[in-house]
Amino acid sequence: MRNHATDFLNHLSVERGLADNTLQSYRNDLGQFLAFLEERGLDFGGVSPETLTAYTARLKQRGMAQTSVMRKLSALKMFFRYLYRERVVLKDPTESIESVKKTGHLPDTLTPDEVSRLLAQPDLSTPEGLRDRAMLEIMYASGLRVSELVGLEVADIDLPAGMLRCFGKGSKERVIPFNNVAAEYLSLYLEKGRPRFAKEEAVPGLFISHRKQKLSRVAFWDSLKRYAAQAGIRKEVSPHTLRHSFASHLLEGGADLRAIQAMLGHASISTTQIYTHLQKSHLKEVYKKSHPRA
User: Fold this and answer.
1) Mind giving me the DSSP string for 207-259?
2) Which of the pair, 226 or 260, is modelled with greater confidence?
3) Cys staple from 193: which of 4, 118, 189, 217, with CB 3.0 to 4.6 Å?
4) Catalytic: 71?
5) Which residue has the higher pLDDT, 248 or 190?
6) 112-279: same fold as 2-85?
7) Does 274 score more than 80 pLDDT?
8) Which candidate in 4, 145, 194, 249 is catalytic?
């Protein structure tokens, strides 16, 4: 069974060009499901809709969030479609499961004031603080995913033009603008912070540690949570919170949805449309300013 799982992951990598982070998620999801089957003495041919129902119940009993359960079911549907096409199984047991639908729910976004407080937390007297401030500014200025942020290299940055290049899902390249404030802190980091990490060596990574390696996603996430606590922000703050805040604040400021889609790297406009959940108070304010009889 594990050989078939490996073949499927290779298929996703070679033929569909999925990013390493996405492949790792599939690998984890399949590994968890295979362990469940092995525990029950089943192979793929013995999987039935009832088996999948039992697996879903197991995940929920362990306190897994509904969104995570939905993602795992989506992975299994794709996997069994692959097995059916390859004639490993005679019937796809996921056919009877309704397509997993996203709820459209977004994590809390930060207010502009909360963003300002968060970004002000790093200690600029240290190289780590200079690096973290530059990372936070760039993330909020460009809406990058955390994997795209930590994957940046020095050659991806055009400071005079205020543009950066990143590689998103499926290794798709896109070019995104960033603002003057982000450029200022990035320039400060490149001048005074990064040289203390690189030690005059030719290191390609932009945001690096004392080990001269790109900062990991986990390390950045840990720092972000610490800064949020220091800023007195009670909301659950993750790297995606800054990405959502970027998109929401742009939309509230009148940005075109297609432009936001391009900057976020969404393949479909329908994914970006979840940001049209503008608050009623903001809509009322826009109405008062725009309608001749308001």
Assistant:
1) SB-TTSSBPPHHHHHHHHHHHHHHTT--S---HHHHHHHHHHHHHHTT--HHH
2) 226
3) 189
4) no
5) 190
6) no
7) no
8) 145
Q: Which of the following is catalytic: 11, 81, 117, 169?
A: 169
CATH number for the domain formed by residue range(s) 112-279:
1.10.443.10
- φ/ψ (deg, to 5) at 28: -65, -45
- Is 4 catalytic? The answer is no
Structure-model confidence comparison of residues 23 and 128, the more confident one: 128
State the DSSP code for 206.
Answer: S
| Spatial contact of 164 and 158, defined as CB atoms under 8 Å apart | yes
Residue 145 annotated in active site? yes
Considering 240, 277, 282, 284, which one is annotated as catalytic?
240
Long-range contacts of 151-158 (CB under 8 A, 24+ apart): 151/214, 152/205, 152/206, 152/207, 153/204, 153/205, 153/206, 154/190, 154/204, 154/205, 154/206, 155/204, 156/206, 157/186, 157/206
Q: Which residues pair with 158 in a beta bridge?
A: 163
> Cα dist. 1→7, 29, 38, 83 in Å?
10, 14, 10, 11
Per the annotation, the verdict on 27 as an active-site residue is: no
E strand map for the chain: 157-158, 163-167, 173-177
Catalytic site includes residue 249: no
Could you report the per-residue pLDDT of 89-125, keeping only the tens digit for each?
Answer: 888 888 766 554 444 455 578 999 999 999 999 999 9
| 266 labelled catalytic | yes
How confident is the prediction for the chain on average, in pLDDT?
Answer: 85
Question: 0.70 cut: is pTM over it?
Answer: no
Pick from 32, 7, 170: nearest CA to 85: 7
Task: Compute the average pLDDT of residues 130-147.
Answer: 95
Task: List the domain boundaries for the chain.
Answer: 2-85, 112-279
The catalytically annotated residue of 72, 77, 194, 243 is: 243
33-67 residue pLDDT tens = 999 999 989 888 888 888 888 888 888 888 887 77
CATH class of 2-85: mainly alpha
